[in-house]
């Protein structure tokens, strides 16, 4: 019997066999001879070599022909290299890595999904080895795969192949990321266009400021890159048209993928700029709001070191004036473990995870226990069902099961 | 911890190569101090100011060669960076120098594991958050009947082939398998873990199975603490490349794999540190004492 369940349309028998008419595969009814279905007369070359009954891994082939998935993977690696416009040497390195990884016992039997991701990871590792700045997020977009999966496969691959792939710093990533933004005069309106070089320069300074203010450590790089490029673009020509653009609209215009985290980074970066902008002497203590700070970004960035110093000193003054009596308490607090972390020593810039610390569940004090104490019977009995409960439970389950059957 | 590491290396080198002993004319007299410390307890540190006269009577240091010259200058084995050792050397050299002391075999030498960690260096003691242990109940179990008779059990064979049982005091969870093996998690100390495992075994006993309590073993301990200052993870990665892994695209913390003791630490920018992979409590304390000076170096002023 060729296929279970196939019935002959002529006589209705279930006895269908695989038969071939010269080179054309056919399904024929054994009782009446009717042809149930037939295959193609011609086959492609790959089908002839690889579409066999015996699975390739079980075959006794002496010289290993590269399997179909390996060929597909190598094609994918080459395609990725061409999209990213990598050099020929890098393409070759990536191919070698992929072949090595694919044949390794760690990867030969993984799912097809992982093998697809492996191609991207090889390209990523090659780029890192040749100091070509590429973010993992870019590979993620190109492969349209889960970033977690990419991370797992990447780390396993690096461990298996024992290659040294130093991660790129965020400043290097900025330049390549900037080039993805289509803001030249031929793409957008004259007023909204900006040269890539100016944009990169301004964004690099903003990024450095963000790094100093603890906005970069421990976070995903791409949202902060997007945020700094957006603010750079707005501040280079702070006209009303540009200021009206939201981040989402900006990304749409520049033909870049939107990110849900980048708006938060924009807010944080604006806060930092406001803190520095407050110190500008010609404002004479006027309030600097996130809306008005963009116009001043130029001045802030040019004099940021001075402003930083002034901000730190004024912050210290504010702290000292706030708590003149608790100065002595602070000294005692230095020796014992502070109950509230960073209390009394709140610095000007703090990582956001410290500033907006999660409210922890109240820690129950650990009871001193020997581990060999007596266990009361009543406590154990409280964990066991009474016979009545068991009967009720069984009845309820049966009632549920029967109602499900009815449905 | 520094004391322990130092002591072990010297001791083992002495035991392994007795021939070499002759070349090492000077056994650092700080060893004698260490041994005193170990026998008398950490409070010994406070009595540094008074020179102890009867050190030699308590100790049995027969492994030391007969000629012990008080030549402090040629001390190659001990690092000189702690003030404690320098102070003691002055005091001890006068008393123990001419004495011939005998030391028994390592069987009577107990390892240096102070019960309370020496908190003077950092002032912070990591708190244990979770302990994973296993125990063998040594009888085949009918999981369906356990799930039916117990109030606090859940059993979904399609998802996972074990009963998940929880108790309220101490707040722990156990995975009970049909072979009779059990995994107990969620306790905050070794004693609580032991008590919880015994309670689970007692519940199983009451349900009608001849459960025993064999081979209780702790497999993993997790601790956490806060150093209370932000940390530059990029800098830490640059300096300790061979131990650290920091990929912000995948995980916000830096993963530091310490070699001795073999502990994995997750260090976050806020200053919180999670330590895991320990089989004993002192490994967590030791690991934290090792990492604290490194982290202090990356404190941004």
UniProtKB/TrEMBL annotation, chain A:
The cross-references to Gene3D superfamilies, in alphabetical order and at most eight, read: 2.20.25.10, Cyclin-like (1.10.472.10)
InterPro entries documented for this protein = BRF2-like_C (IPR054078), Cyclin-like_sf (IPR036915), TFIIB (IPR000812), Znf_TFIIB (IPR013137)
Q: Give GO terms: molecular function aspect only.
A: TBP-class protein binding; zinc ion binding
* Subcellular location field: Nucleus
Annotated Polar residues bias: 324-345
CDD domains in the cross-refs? CYCLIN_BRF2
Domain of life where this protein originates: Eukaryota
**Could you provide one GO biological process annotation from this protein's UniProt record?**
transcription preinitiation complex assembly
| PROSITE patterns attached to this UniProt entry | ZF_TFIIB (PS51134)
Annotated segments matching region Disordered: 316-349
Q: What is its main location?
A: nucleus
User: GO cellular component terms?
Assistant: nucleus; transcription preinitiation complex
Q: Please provide the record's keywords in A-Z order.
A: Activator, Metal-binding, Nucleus, Repeat, Transcription, Transcription regulation, Zinc, Zinc-finger
Q: What does the UniProt record say this protein does?
A: General activator of RNA polymerase III transcription. Factor exclusively required for RNA polymerase III transcription of genes with promoter elements upstream of the initiation sites. Contributes to the regulation of gene expression; functions as activator in the absence of oxidative stress. Down-regulates expression of target genes in response to oxidative stress. Overexpression protects cells against apoptosis in response to oxidative stress.
Its protein name is Transcription factor IIIB 50 kDa subunit
Organism of provenance = Oncorhynchus mykiss (Rainbow trout)
TrEMBL record, chain B:
Q: Which UniProt keywords apply?
A: DNA-binding, Nucleus, Transcription
What GO biological process terms are annotated to this protein in UniProt? Answer: DNA-templated transcription initiation
**Family classification:** Belongs to the TBP family.
Any Pfam family? TBP
Main localization is nucleus
Report TM segments: none
Q: Which residues form the signal peptide?
A: none
- Looking at the UniProt record for this protein, which Gene Ontology cellular component terms does it annotate, in alphabetical order? nucleus
The protein depicted here goes by the name TATA box binding protein like 2
Q: Where in the cell is it found?
A: Nucleus
Per the record, the domain of life is: Eukaryota
Matches recorded under Gene3D superfamilies: TATA-Binding Protein
